[in-house]
């Protein structure tokens, strides 16, 4: 009965096209980060740097919304434990990093997490206007990358100050004689990421022809940014999308869910590569894709645990707190000499939170096994592959999108499963929110 009421409520929202707080904050983060180069440059020129932090200020309201929606309304013990663990880890991080500035930076780093969690009971397809903003962002981001190939953006090389640290927006990178185009974003990696994630969220309600044409254009645009890993993830997604679309209607959701559940195996890839290839010289020429993988195997995936065993051995179990081996440590701590780019979301998050993160991910896996929202399933599938070699805590939208996919663990449905309520037929594969898998109906 509760599920029926929830579905009716979401259907009403979809028909009205109304905006909710979490959709507004999601859109603010998306626009700010996707056009980070533009935003940083012109906000500094106009002496309005405070505008950059508007999404973060709005995200504070989402913390209160998370507490009400997930803990008070849904009575989710899991949500309460996660909130307590984040608070404890902030304290551990302050003790480990020994910097008040790093603490404030770590707190701000967690804001997007709560925005994503606020989508726990929602069907993403019901946020019609938010998805329209995603689509517009997708087209503009594509155009920005192509434009930057022929026109030098004024924000390239622009330096700005944040929390006392000097950063560089839109730096013009060169990768083995290839120019890394940034478009309107702050760097080429962000430009590639927003093409990928905006394509994924837009493609779900588009025709196969649109997916093939825009998928090809997107792959080429990402190639111009020289982010070959992101391009590979996009190609994998398009192939899987075509496979799911080719199936009978009754098998589409089940197949998508199985693909998503299988993608969690990507968490094991770093451990397997370390066991098999640690110390092996994969790239004698010290360049290219294999050198990048070799560096991750021998350094960025292992060194955090080596340094942690020296600085705080108990941190292998408890984690070293929010902000450790992340940009708060890199920019604001006396331990910046021990900082290394972790380059993997699951390793980076485990280092911060320890064993409680493993428990949380097991619950997320269980929640995914009964998930019916095509958008969340698609996001989890893509981000599990994407984050094999990317930490994804910056830009903030990266963490927000991951939290959006994982938010189902705090839903009313999953809370009932975890806390003893009987499973409903809807949790076994019937689309609860009425979103067709692979439908071609455009967003009106």
How much of the sequence lies in strands comes to under 5%
The main pleated sheet reads as: 2 strands, antiparallel
What is the assembly state of the chains in this entry?
single chain
Helix coverage percent: 55-70%
Q: Give, in spatial order, the strands making up the sheet with the most strands.
A: 1-2
Give the ordered list of helices and strands.
Answer: HHHHHHHEEEEHHHHHHHHHHHHHH
Q: What does the radius of gyration come to?
A: 21 Å
Kindly report how far apart the N and C termini lie: 30 Å
Mean pLDDT equals 86
Ranges where pLDDT stays below 50 over 5 or more residues in a row are 1-17, 169-177, 422-444
Number of helical segments with 4 or more residues: 21
- Overall, the morphology is globular
Count of strand segments: 4
Global structural class: mainly alpha
